[in-house]
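Issue: ligand-bound run for manganese (II) ion - logging full I/O for the record.

Environment: standard queue, default settings, no custom constraints.

Inputs:
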Amino acid sequence: MVTRLVLGSGAVCQALVDRAVESGRSLHVVTDDAGRTDTLRGDNRKVTERDPADPEELEAAQPSAEVVFVGSDDPSRNAAIARAARTVYPGAMIVAYTGYRPTDADRRRIERHADRLIDPGAATASRVLDVVSGETGERTRKLRRTLRAVDGPIAVVAHDNPDPDAIASALALARLAGVIGVDAQACYYGEITHQENRALVNLLDLDLRQLDADDPDHLEEFAGFALVDHSRAGVNDQLPEDLPIDVVVDHHPPRGPVDAEFVDIRSTVGATSTLLTEYFAEFGVEIDETVATALLYGIRIDTWDFSREVALSDFEAAGTLVPHADVGLLERVESPSISGDTLETVAGAIRNREQKGSILTSFVGELSDRDALAQAADRLLDMEGVTTTVVFGLLDGVVYVSARAQGSELDLGETLRLAYNRIGSAGGHTDMAGAQIPVGMLATADEDGEATNDAIESVLRDRFFDALRERPFELPNEYLSAVSEFEFPLRSEDGHEDLAPEGSIEAGSGVASDRTPSNGERDGGDE
Ligand SMILES: [Mn+2]
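Outputs:
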């Protein structure tokens, strides 16, 4: 059994412990914070009161561990704990939280001993909890181990007549294997017939091997096999049914038993390419332009340009890929329903988003095309848990606002009028509204009418939330809690409300809200 160890105490530790226990994982918490041990105690967890920064005490508390999370609120304390953990558990996967307001030096000291650093400012709440709850770390560790265990080249096989998602995933997994020193080749049976898919392969000059099932010896040279975008040998590929499979990465629910050393099937995401994009981040490998372009195309095709079966992680993956991808090349591959400019705007909106409850706001900076803003507001509305989107962008000295709502009781047109009519013009319907505000009208502008993006963003965001607050009688509870969360971004248990560094509101509020059963509220609100 994998031993999961949590060292330290604090709001993030508490959230992690609660979450892990909910999902049935057992944990061992070692902390010298006597005041915390009571709140940490409960089912499926052991709490030992010892100093985790002292190697001897740590070893006495827990002689061995596979996954270690370092999570106190204090950066220098986390550095000391990470060092002790590395001494006692040299082979463990160590995930360390930086704590609040880490200096660069703190960060470097923690990084020296940790495999992964969780930064409250950079990471989104869901990501932090996913990583610290150990799921992602363990998955990555196991994939690495499985690939490395293969003695010889691995064939990464796409399904027959592969589509862009299968092609990109095969290529990406082969690349990842290569990075950790394992020889691998992206392969497929059948034909790449679709004209756009051929164009993709040719324009990116993709290194794919076509396998020939009629040649009895064609698998001889491979020592291992991985399947992407499908999950069973002999089903939708021409491999022998009884061939031992090492790795499966897929997003389709399997129709029968899947037998492989490592299986990662997540049918909640829209594309296998999304999963591969995450592995690049988890492996700490920079995505090159070819792979990024192919993966982005894979996600777009499988989610119909983010309009169907799209999950939050698909958006996040696209947001990660766009800066690395050759978006112009994709426009030569096909005539997409979403232009390159729009895609950049949508990706920017995803990267800059802030979510308070179910309300998502984002400032995308300079626009090349007004229509892109409306499309961004539309597409972000498909994100899980989002019922309202408000997106801001700048064009020729005017700030444009596009807002969308779905399944909410909010009157967007009214809210935007209330928020922006005095400084610009605003209007629209309950579920779709917009506004235009000359930058010179914003109080933050100097004499030349110039204002920084940050200032514009905070003025517009504040006005929107102020307008929401002025109409409490129409707001369901969800919005009220979203608004108060916005004002008090982090409520740690010992009452410190000012611990969060600027820019960490997202992670802080996510951790706090994760402890309340917001799903129930949402379901109620939707009815
Ligand atoms: Mn797919």
